[in-house]
Amino acid sequence: VQLVESGGGSVPVGGSLRLSCVSSVGYVFSSHCMGWFLQAPGKEREGVANIGTDGGTAYADTVKGRFTISKDSAKNTLYLQMSSLRPEDTATYYCAADKFVHLRNWSSGSWAFWGQGTQVTVS
Q1: pLDDT of residue 29
Q2: pLDDT tens-digit series, residues 69-80
Q3: Which are the contacts of 43, defined by CB distance < 8 A and separation ≥ 6?
Q4: Are 83 and 19 spatial neighbours (Cβ–Cβ below 8 Å)?
């Protein structure tokens, strides 16, 4: 499984951005939990939002009401719509997939497949 993120960039405070993650194989969307993580410089990678095989979602408290995770299985693509962005959202964002994690597993070490990351800067 290969995951490739895109859509990062520089945005002003309060702005919006949509990240995309394309999978090399389509079956992950029906068999794997998928998620978005962020990692700021000098900090641990932390979970942001997850989506299960049934479409159920979970969000970290810091992004609830501002970020929306979704997927389009026909396009093999995972999305993260981000709005009301804050300077503290600045980080490299990674998408991840794993067949066995629970929807609310925020531990990066539990996830098997990762993209290379895309940088988001809010200022």
Answers
A1: 86
A2: 999 999 999 999
A3: 91
A4: no
